Amino acid sequence: MSPTTGIAASQLHQLIYYHMDNDLLDTANFLAGRLYALEPRNADSSHLLALTYLRLRRFKAAYDFSSKSGSNGRHLGCAYTFAQACLQLGRHTEGITALEKAKSFWVGKMNWKKHSETTRRHVPDAPAVYTLMAKLWQGHGDLRKAGDCYIEAHKANPFIWDAFEGLCRVGADLNVGNMFRSPVDAAVVGTGMPEIYTDEVQPQGSFSQQVFTPSADPFGGRSANGLGQYVLPDAKSKTSLLSGLRSQASEWDTPTANGGSGEDDVAMGGVGLESEENMSEPPMAPPRRYRPGQQPENLDKPRQPQLRGQMHSSSEATIEDPLRPGIGAHKRTISGQTSQASSTDPSAPPRRSNRLFGQGTTTTKPTRSTADTVSSLAGKTVRAAKAATGAKGRGTSTVGRVVSGNRKIMPPDPAEKEKERRAVSRATDRNAPTAPGVTAAVTQKAHSHPPPVPDVQVEQQAMTALLDNFRHLAVGSYATARFDLPKAIQTFRSLPASQRETPWVLAQLGKAYYEAADYKSAQECFSRLLKMQPTRIQDMEIYSTVLWHLKLDSNLAFLCHVLRDVDYHAPETWCAVGNAFSLAREHDQAITAFKRATQLDDGFAYAWTLMGHEYIANEEFDAALTAFRRSVAVDRRCYGGWYGLGKSYERMGKLEEAEQHYRIAANINPSNATLLVCIGVVLERLKNKKAALANYSKALEIAPKSALARFKKARVLMHMREFGLALGELEVLRDQAGEEANVWFLLGKCYKGLGEKSEALRALTTALNLDVKAAPYIKDAMEALDEEEEGSEEDD
Question: Most buried pick, 87, 305, 346, 628, via CB within 10 A?
Fold first, then answer.
């Protein structure tokens, strides 16, 4: 490859990242194609081309271009892009295999503390890979391995919210109190200072044991030396971090197909690692300066101060002075002799510092030799009028040249003074550790620049507050996922107003109210949400179902129009349209709308569930079973799909299968009283009245205001000829739902069983007045009041 090809490829790399960062994806894809044509065998070129196709949602093209170097795990970027494309294409095992083969490139790496406004990493780290691998395992159907990967991702980076939500979706049993741990209690052994960089001096073995050990307790106690991993790095201590990274180049560099490192910072705005020198050490005290006229005979060999990374020539190495003038006990010339000029000599010219600050008398114009002495010994203190030119390897002159021959001594450049001070300090520490002046300078540095303890403490406090906020949100979200609805509602309502009145929290609160069957409160939450964010699409399918339960057809129709204007091709929009048709009892139109939602996103489990219920309404039970099976195939914890399967089997007369699927749904959502009532109904039809009574009683414990559960319990008690217990339940139900004819009809039959015929006649008369259409059945019950109770057990 010619040098011009390499330079062109480097420029194309920068241009591609520039356009991707500015969301100019078509241009980035075009440039990536030019780069791939320039270097077709370079894995980096394939990675960038596949990445641009992935951002453009052209997943098959991304799969093709990343397959060569990604499927075999030879390039981390290609493997990650290949796995992302496999996730979208449903090829889960291929993506998992690619990430496993590239494990040596990403295991143990954490880059989440290395991203800022100016720098970033373009290859993933271990938490990101674990999160993607968990999604692939979840799509493959192995929820246990998915949970393990989500745990590893959360342990390494607690700010990956996808990992926590993934754990909730797979039904993991979590101790949220031990998650999102704050690093306040961590301390570096022997210093008492909180540990900020965990990847700076930590060996690979201990890092893997603390962060990426699957067998360890995922959310147990934290070790003393693993507590600082959630703290952002301090820019003032960047030198120690860089030195640690350089000392472990094989461990932290990302290998590529060309053997290069992929861990270099991508500089933005002209800020790179070249500024390391300016931020690595605090400024030193200013060194002493030579007075004009000192040792003019030694000016034939001027010497520049030694800077970082600057090597001496062979001639300069022979005259290197171990004690520099600014920090030794005596000032010396380049030759090593003590200066003849004394500070107490009245005939000596005034000190340069006195002239600069006006503390001495002004001097006459310096001669040529005096100016040369000051220029050469101060080290680039004269501003050059013209840059010196010369052959390659020739040292640059430090004496400014003027046309007229007159010289004017200018104040030193602050940047050059800073470099000279650091160079003097490092040379002193290396060459003269026992000099009295050196000891004093080092001691002064330690006392004048103490460790930035307040900055670290403020950073720790900010990180603690942020993680506490995350933990509070996680407690509510996890309670909703586990259907601990009272706790979820209380947690979200106890948030500060600045957090509570946000779209995400209002949506979570509305869904919690919906699962608790408090549809009025859910409607209020979603209404406030839409006022705050009128263009929101997420969670609107739940809001449409809330309006369906409340029979608010006009509100539901308005919501459909709003969602259609916001995003016509969103599955949530078509779910709302389907609910509107269902409320209008147009079930065929509702099925068409739900089919459209599943065509837009076949992984939208809620649309499959709603479609199945519409098939049940049309008594198309085979089609309903197909829809519900697709729902639970997409989301194994979709209890609505399992409930729909049970309802379909019940309507088909397959009671054992119905009971089995009802129980699966109840295990997923144990707080839903309706599921327990359905199990009781099936058991009652299977002549297992005691088991049915137990389920009704448990449903009432969960939802004491459930009229359906109390009605079913009273009826099964009457079948068991427990009329006294049944009467107590019916009296409560009478006060709760006094306008229901069925309650009064069952109350009349209960009074008949107790022998109170007058009360029975009064209750049946009330039932007749409430429901005239049921008059034939009620009159038959009235005529049977004088008959003996022989077939009461067979009555329904």
Answer: 628
